[in-house]
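tool_call predict_complex ligand=DP6
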Amino acid sequence: MQATVQAQPNIALIKYWGKRDAALNLPAAGSLSITLDALHTRTSVRFDDALADDDIVLNGKRDEAQTRRLGAFLDLFRTRAQVDTRAHVESTNDFPTGAGLASSASGFAALAVATDHALNTNLTPRELSILARRGSGSAARSIFGGFVEMAAGTRADGEDACATPLLDADEWPLAVVVAITTRAAKATSSRDGMEDSRRTSPFYRDWIATVHADLVDARAAVHARDFAKLVDTSEASCLTMHAVMLSTRPGLVYWNAATVDCIHRIREMRRTGTAVFFTIDAGPQVKAVCLPEHAEAVASALRDVHGVEEALVSGLGAGARIIEADG
Ligand code: DP6
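tool_result ok
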């Protein structure tokens, strides 16, 4: 049985940075995100009795560490389906991988949905979100489209740590301009970085304590389609997370000069009447969230920032879905 799934990355407005349990990949706090439509991961999964080992090809390459990580993820599904069959997995991104563009989010969401179909496990979206989380915390959110909230949950087994959709993409069609300032992969992964922050940042506990109130605000802003309120909460969540990153030992400086210039450019546009705010993840790319009618002006302003290689415009998109299947 085989299936091909398309999933898109999501961008957190209220950030996830820290785990309450590393083994089950349980977040220490909730998060809130928007799923994009212009960046795509396509993942094909085929289980084959003739294979002795999983054969995993990511963006045309085989990599031992990734094969182990994805193989362990496939085991979660094999255990449920009570099979031992190995799989051939082929996954490609049409955007830079591992550079702060949430490739692990779309990657594990696509892999979860494709594996579920290929093994006929018939999981619900909630169960898929819980399993996608085991691959990558942010992947739990890419199961769904539009505006999505991730719950930290309280259960030790993680069965309540999953995402739920808040609004569909077309219920509040915002745009996101992604300013790419480098295509190089980042030096410290989110996974390692957030664990270092938990262990060493003097601000870590205070950061986790801020998330609940930010989520309440952001959720209300989303339901009310209140852009001004979303500006405030989202920039605060992003900058507070980066304060924790900077105060980690050794300090995690994910920004470059162009990142900082984009922040100033976006705030300047806002001062002169453009509805736009920034958010930045564990990498130097800047995502400018704006009303669709401002997207081209924002993209062109960011393209003029020295060091910006490209500015992509995206709308909000759907969750992970099957685009081809048989068996
Ligand atoms: C900064 O979901 O990649 O993008 O759960 O360890 O795989 P793991 O981490 P990951 O971290 C995302 C961190 C972030 C913020 C966010 O997306 O909420």
